[in-house]
Amino acid sequence: MSELSVTQETTHLDRQASWRRDVHRRHVLGQIGAHAVLLLLSFLFSIPFLWLVSSSLKPNSQLFKIPPEWIPRPFVWSNYPEALTYIPYFQYLKNTAYVCAFNVVASVLSCSYIAYGFSRVRWPGREVAFMILVGTMMLPYTVTMIPMFLIFKKLDWINTFGPLTWPAWTGAPFFIFLLRQFYMGIPMELSDSARIDGCNDLGIYRRIILPLAKPALATVALFAFLNNWNDFMGPLIYLRKQENWTIALGMYGFLSYRTSQWGLLMAAATVTVAPVIILFFFTQKTFIQGVTLTGLKG
Amino acid sequence: MRRATRHRLLIGLMFVFPWVIGLLVFNLYPILASAYYGFTEYSILRAPEWTGLENYRVMFTEDKLYFKSLSNTLYFVLLSVPLSTAIPVVLAIILNAKVKGMAFYRTVFYLPSIMPAIASSMLWLWILNPQYGLANEILRWIGLAPVGWMTSPQWSKPSLAAMSLWGAGGGIVIFLAGLQDIPVHLYEAAELDGANGLQRLFRVTLPLLTPSIFFNMVIDLIYYFQYFTQAYIMTGGTGGPLDSTLFYGMLLFRNAFEYFNMGYASAMAWILFLIVFIITFLLYNSSGRWVHYQGAEQV
After folding, report:
1. In chain A, positions 243-272, which contact chain B (CB-CB < 8 Å)?
2. Contact by Cβ (8 Å): A187, A204
């Protein structure tokens, strides 16, 4: 009797162990399969990047080889200094840096201030105003583009950075929306106790909300920078003189008069892309926050 | 109004007034002004001159380029919106797997979406170069005939769509956020009921992802109807070859800032506004039938 029960016990244990091994094996196989698929897809997505860097280092003769070659022979590092001096890249960089810095500062200050009014104070009409704000996020830019150009023309701001910078003080709907979401998560009790201590709303905004909202403000700063670094249409409309061009516009100019100099063009493109990639690697968390903050749960 | 309420109203307005100014100056006034300009002939040099429905008559009966740009845009929207929904959904589901080193993979897919349009357009122009480009080399390598890409009226729009897909990582992030919102207990319940992987995908994952799909579709629709930058850069503003990439936004830009036909361009802008508004509205109305919000009554 006892023998039987022992064998039963062992077969049971055996079965359990083999089941566990099975699950484990399936798990390992699944992991390997997933990695294989992901590596293949990642490779496909990286090809354009690799091609960008490879082309930027090739001599002209090798660029036009059929079939194309991946490894530059020799590495022509001089494509970089040549591209950056052939066009006044550093002048463009200075202009772009100015527009970006202005927008980052103005957006962070104005949007953080405005968002307070949409989340930390209860006033009649607030919900309607917020609906309007959301509505303007979906407004096609084409309907506002022409009258805005005419306003700036009347102000004699064409060919200045004014149209690309000053509007930031009125806040961007998307950033206000994002910060409002963040502010809503800060407990109201913090405001209440500050109020009891004699703090008014401006004080609460400055001393309590702003310090707590630093991660969300970083997200706004990051996106404000990227939007302006990448913007093409705004400068295309407003900046006619070459000395005012931003990098995006300057590179377009370069593209249109030296279309066969692909080595130089790719070098210039790499230099323009590099800050974005470096910034991304240092601020990954801030990026992800931006997505979770918009709260797409419906 | 009670004194306390009035006080709170004043405080609220004190905070939102910069936005109110922006709303009036950069949204409300421009919408009304462009509606008015649409009924005028306005070349900047002279004051706008009322011409009634003339701009709209020319647009709908005489301007051949107008219909060309409208059909190009519709074609591109119909090509790009489904693709830029379906492929990021699939990629997001793959990227949601529990695998070591996922942060690396996600980075690879996300990076192209934050590329400056000027850099990615230049890069793709080189990749799609009909003679020396990488794209045709890959086609030859698979054993297919090379195509003209941006130099062929047939292939120019698919070329742009392919390039957009490379930058579709923004959508992937939205879908990943949506996937991570799906409660695990629903999968456990489905598994207990004997649902296999495919059934779980079609009965749990996709239905609960519909809010994200809806949100992403609205954004994409508005974006692709106004598609401009990449097409402008890659064709040097011409919309070629044979006007095959002359999208609505490009024709509008040309009329406004190259011909300075502000009246006609404003009329075009308003028609686009109406089209986008109606399509978004229809999509929104249809959403009750196919978008499943969590927490909503399940019937």
Report:
1. 247-248, 251-252, 255-256, 262, 265-266, 268-270, 272
2. no
Closest CB to B19: pick one of A41, A176, A236.
A176
Total-model pTM = 0.88
Q: Place A259 in a pLDDT band, splitting at 50, 70 and 90.
A: low
Residue B76 lies in a domain: yes
Residue B136: both structure tokens together? 């045709």
Q: Domain residues of chain A, as ranges?
A: 2-56, 79-293
- Does residue B90 sit within a domain? yes
**pLDDT in the model for residue B76:** 96
pLDDT at residue number B270: 96
| A123 contact B CB<8A | yes
Output the six-digit token pair for A26: 């399936």
How distant, in Å, are the alpha carbons of B59, B276, B280, B283 from that of A139? 22, 9, 11, 16
Give mean pLDDT, residues B68-95. Answer: 93
CB A96 within 8 A of CB A229: yes
CATH of the domain at B261: 1.10.3720.10
The Cα–Cα gap between B33 and B22 comes to 15
Q: Is the pLDDT of residue A14 over 80?
A: no
Question: Is B1 within a domain?
Answer: no
Report residue B141 CA to chain centroid gap.
33
Could you list the residue range(s) of the whole structural domain that residue B146 is in?
69-290
A79-293 fold: MetI-like fold (1.10.3720)
Q: Which of A142, A268, A273 sits opposite B115 (nearest CB)?
A: A273
Percentage helix, strand, coil, to 5, in chain A?
A: 80, 0, 20
Question: From the candidates A28, A146, A181, which should be mutated to test the interface with B, based on the most B CB atoms within 10 A?
Answer: A146
- At A209 the pLDDT is 94
In B, minimum Cα distance to A40 occurs at B105
Q: How far is CA A174 from its chain centroid? A: 13
Q: What is the SS3 assignment for B40?
A: strand
A31 in contact with chain B, both atoms CB, cutoff 8 A: yes
Q: Are A134 and A177 in contact (CB under 8 A)?
A: yes
- In order, the DSSP letters of A88-114 are THHHHHHHHHHHHHHHHHHHHHHHHHH
Residue B158 lies in a domain: yes
Q: Chain B window 113-172: which residues touch A at a Cβ cutoff of 8 Å?
A: 114-120, 122-127, 129, 131-132, 134, 137, 140-141, 166
Number of domains in chain B: 1
Taking contacts as CB-CB distances below 8 angstroms, the residues of chain B near A233 are: 228-229
Residues of chain A with Cβ-Cβ distance to B174 below 8 Å are 291, 296
